[in-house]
Automatic annotation (TrEMBL):
Keywords: Glycosidase, Hydrolase. This is Mannosylglycerate hydrolase MGH1-like glycoside hydrolase domain-containing protein. InterPro entries: 6-hairpin_glycosidase_sf, 6hp_glycosidase-like_sf, Glycoside_hydrolase_63, MGH1-like_GH. Residues 54-451 form the Mannosylglycerate hydrolase MGH1-like glycoside hydrolase domain. Belongs to the glycosyl hydrolase 63 family. One of its GO terms (molecular function) is Glc3Man9GlcNAc2 oligosaccharide glucosidase activity. GO terms for biological process: oligosaccharide metabolic process; protein N-linked glycosylation. SUPFAM superfamilies: Six-hairpin glycosidases. It comes from Streptomyces seoulensis. The keyword DNA repair does not apply.
């Protein structure tokens, strides 16, 4: 019986956990409750974000979940990543959804019969025996793999964990760097809002306005059966998401940089996003550490991460906003402030004036929410909605990333304030998917996977500087 199973059994029998990271009863209770969420969402091979709203395996969710699971069961954390990477395509992409064959088709849309991965994705090397989507999500996976390895190096070595995931992670990064540099400036582009992960952000309103939505009668939204319509994307936006995904599928999931960069048509959505690229950079640093651990050269990956950092600053930094902005390849900089522009705080190689300005923006009126969390969109922005999906609510994964970035830049007091707000609100909200940044009101799905997992991570003591691939400490 692994440590998670032991913990779950003891929770059931006596209502307590094994020795928690903190002796405080509130921390012990939070630890047990978070562990229960992850136990309830475990399928036997992976963890679903939410049993009802998201009943399959999601790519960046699993990376965040593995980071939390390492504190309960390093074995299960390894399996989480291995299950996801087993569905990798031949061209290196890691699909954003791996579908469970036991879930009815009408439980989630777009379903496997929409994506048709094994047929439409044949030329790109989609797996034949596993059904997946055809788009991707942010590349947090190498960072997660490194942290999972560090949680129990003995088990990792005994199972050959790093040796097995390293080639897949390297192929994943190679796909992004070679096939998705659609703007030619060294950064990765996303071709659908779902790829960036912050699906309904106001940042996408401009690029999406070019997209003719799919007819409303051509799809059925399963999400509205599990969430309030006021919390979810509008039908118009959803129709545009469906159109983009269908067009990409009908092109055989091909990535053609010339088509996307063209100004006279084609490539309706192609955006360079700061958080997606920052997570790739952080994972490049982590992959360098993995390579070194395996006895392979890692310096080249560190150097690549530094070049990507320079490209990020050159292409997406905006002095006037004091943060990074998205760049629409057909329309130029997108002048909307979102939490995506703060996530590059993760990176150790930022120029001092850039990190300083980011810290000022984080503490200023655009992002200083009453809960102490970080809103997903500018509190003063014209499109701000406190409860609607990524248009203002505070999310726990982005709070975790910003907290990690604060520690990376020596801002321990501010990081501790954010950590405290995170833990308080996660517990009070029932580990909600996201919350109103002003009131902490729970929104979206309850018992959400990454909220529970990252709660566990933040309950563990911080030992020195946060590790982003450079030397430094780590949450153990």
């Amino acid at each position: 019986m692994d440590r998670t199973a032991q913990l779950t059994a003891r929770v059931t029998e006596r209502g307590i956990a094994y020795d928690p990271p903190s002796a405080a009863p509130s921390a012990a209770s939070l630890h047990v409750r978070a562990a229960r969420v992850l136990a309830a969402n475990w399928t036997g091979t992976s963890t679903v974000p939410s049993r009802n709203l998201y009943p399959h395996q999601w790519s960046w969710d699993s990376a965040f979940i593995a980071i939390g699971l390492r504190h309960l069961s390093p074995l299960r954390a390894q399996r989480e990543l291995e299950t996801l990477l087993a569905a990798q395509w031949g061209d290196g992409r890691v699909p954003h959804i791996v579908f469970s064959p036991s879930v009815p088709l009408d439980a989630y849309f777009p379903s496997p019969d929409f994506w048709r991965s094994s047929s439409a994705g044949r030329a790109a090397g989609a797996p034949r025996t596993v059904q997946t989507s055809g788009i991707v999500q942010p590349p947090v996976h190498a960072l997660a793999a490194w942290l999972v390895h560090r949680a129990d190096p003995g088990l990792s070595w005994a199972r050959g964990f790093l040796a097995r995931v390293y080639p897949r992670l390297a192929a994943w990064h190679r796909y992004l760097l070679r096939r998705r540099d659609l703007g030619g400036g060294g950064l990765v582009s996303v071709v659908h809002p779902w790829e960036q992960g912050m699906d309904n952000s106001p940042c996408w309103d401009g690029p999406l306005a070019r997209v003719t939505p799919a007819p409303a009668h051509s799809f059925r939204r399963a999400d509205l059966a599990h969430g309030a319509p006021t919390d979810r994307p509008t039908d118009l936006d959803y129709g545009r998401y469906v159109r983009l995904a269908a067009d990409y599928r009908d092109r055989g999931y091909a990535d053609d940089g010339g088509e996307f960069a063209r100004a006279d048509g084609g490539g309706e959505f192609a955006v360079e996003d700061p958080s997606f690229n920052a997570l790739l950079i952080a994972s490049e640093h982590a992959l360098a550490r993995v390579a070194t651990e395996l006895g392979a050269p890692g310096a080249g990956r560190h150097a690549r991460a530094e070049r990507l950092t320079a490209a990020l600053v050159e292409r997406l930094w905006d002095d006037a906003s004091g943060m990074f902005l998205c760049r629409d390849l057909r329309g130029g900089p997108i002048r909307e402030r979102s939490v995506s522009g703060l996530v590059p705080l993760l990176l150790p190689g930022l120029p001092r004036e850039v990190s300083g300005a980011l810290l000022s923006t984080l503490r200023g009126p655009h992002f200083a929410a009453r809960t102490g969390l970080v809103p997903s969109y500018d509190l003063r922005g014209p499109a701000f909605e406190p409860n609607r999906y990524w248009r203002g609510p505070a999310w726990f994964n982005t709070a975790w990333l910003v907290e990690r970035g604060l520690r990376a830049h020596g801002e321990k007091a501010t990081a501790e304030d954010l950590r405290t707000a995170f833990l308080r609100t996660a517990g009070d909200s029932g580990f909600a998917e996201y919350v109103d940044p002003g009131t902490g009101e729970a929104c979206g799905a309850p018992g959400f996977g990454w909220t529970a997992a990252l709660t566990l991570d933040l309950l563990h003591d911080v030992d020195g500087a946060v590790e982003t691939g450079e030397e430094g400490g780590d949450r153990r």
